[in-house]
Structure formats: C-alpha cells, structure tokens
Amino acid sequence: MLSKGAAKKVTIYVNEDTQRHLNSLYESILSFLMHKGVAGATATRALAGFGAHGVLHTPKVEVLAEHLPIRIEFVETAEKVDELLPTLYDMVSDGMIEFHDTTVVKVAMKDKRATEPKRPHTRKAGNAKLMRVFMGEADRWHGEPLYDAIVKQLRMMDIAGATVYRGILGYGAKGHTHKQSFFHVVRDMPIMISVVESEEKLNQAAEAIESMLQDGLIVISDVDIVRLIHSSPSEETANATIPSR
Q: Is 233 exposed, middle or buried (0-12, 13-18, 19+ CB in 10 A)?
C-alpha cells in the first residue's frame, strides 16, 4: 500500500483509438497497473489536443474525434515505478510517458467492511405504480428545462423519488431521429423521468405533469416493489435506550 512520503507520479499519453491485443491501449494499461497492485490510476479523456504528428484532434470534426488523447496518471513508490516502466515502455508504441518526483502528504482509505458492522434491515414489499415520462431535452417550462421543472413539482408533491435519464439515441411520434455525434452537438436528446409510487399519489403526479407536458408521453404500469431499509446507528441506539411499557 502506498504510504506517506517520497513517491513518483507517472503520466502516460495515448490516443483513444490505439489498440493492443484487440482492446483499447488505455484499458490494457489500466488492467496491467491493477494486476501489478498499483495503489490507484485514473484515465481522463481530453476535449482536444495535438501531438508529434501535428494533427489537431477535436470533437468538432467527426473523423478526428476518435483520436482524442487519453491521459493516464498514477502515483507509486520509486521502486514500484522502476518495476513497471519496462513493460509500459513496450506497451506505449505511439504516445508519451513522463514521471517526476512527488510527495504523498496523506493516504486515507476507509474500509467500510471493517469499520461498519452490517446493520439489520427491514424488508418491505408490496404493489405500486411505475410512471415513465418521455420528452425532449430542449422542452421548456417557464424558462427552465421541463424535466427540471417536473422534478421540482414531484418534490413539492412529496413523491418518494424520481430519476431522470438522458438518452443517446431515439425518435418519437414525429419520426425525427435524435442522435448525438462528435460532428455536432444535439440539444434535443430524449429524456425519460422514472417514478415509483402508490397509485393514489402517482395519479395526482401524472395529472400535474400532464398540464406541463406539451409534446411527450406518459406511461403508467403496475410493479412489485421490494424495499430494504437499513437502520442507522443513531436509530439503533435510540431503540435500545427507550424503555418498554
């Protein structure tokens, strides 16, 4: 395990589309580092960049978007870095590797399994309704995104929870295909809001949303729910100290 003190920071630059043994090179590097017991590594995808080839890679040009740079960083002891560098050198056939001295100020890792014993839970099951609301990302309600306004409305109605999903491809009743690509940014991707609640509260929510929805779809179906409620330590302490009557 990495400890406080002197260390080495390694940064590796590769292209996103560079392959190694039928896998992405950056994924192969991460798998190698994990297999070798490196404390941790992060891969980030750049918005744009250029390298020794003198070509500017940018998402604005679809043919160049696949070549965007990937940056992999990790921090380890000098001995560990010396062990890893020969293999990394062979793996990076088109890219750059750099490392420099750094200092680890703090290493903290909370092991929940060791510090937090498994608490008892209550299982609740029953029937409910599932509502799914479909709309476009560009739809508005009083100057704000419609999906945002709907979520706010659901919170004011004390709905237990709602989740907003953003689609990557879709079409609706109008037959228009909504698709995001690197060539242009689509501002009207499909949006779906999912809500699970009791039939009474969901019917009220559907009525409120229907008045806000100008072009979309509301789907309601029956579902069976299973909910696990874990008691907090404070609740366990309170229950233990309350005398029975």
A: exposed
User: Cα dihedral sign for 231, 236, 242, 245?
Assistant: positive
Structure tokens at 240: 């233990």
217 sits in which H/E element: strand 217-230
Give the model confidence (pLDDT) of 133-192 as tens digits: 998 888 899 989 999 999 999 999 999 889 999 887 666 555 555 455 444 444 668 899
> Are residues 137 and 178 both part of a single domain?
yes
Query: Using CA atoms, how far apart are residues 128 and 202, in angstroms rounded to an integer?
Result: 9
Q: Is 31 helix (H, G, I), strand (E, B) or coil?
A: helix
Describe the crossing of helices 25-35 and 78-91 by its angle, rounded to 10 degrees: 150
Angstrom CA distances, 81 to 5, 38, 105, 224, stand at 15, 9, 18, 52
Domain that holds residue 205: 121-230
Q: For residue 211, give the CATH number of its domain.
A: 3.30.70.120
Strand stretches in 37-115, DSSP E: 41-45, 69-76, 95-104
In a domain, 111, yes or no: no
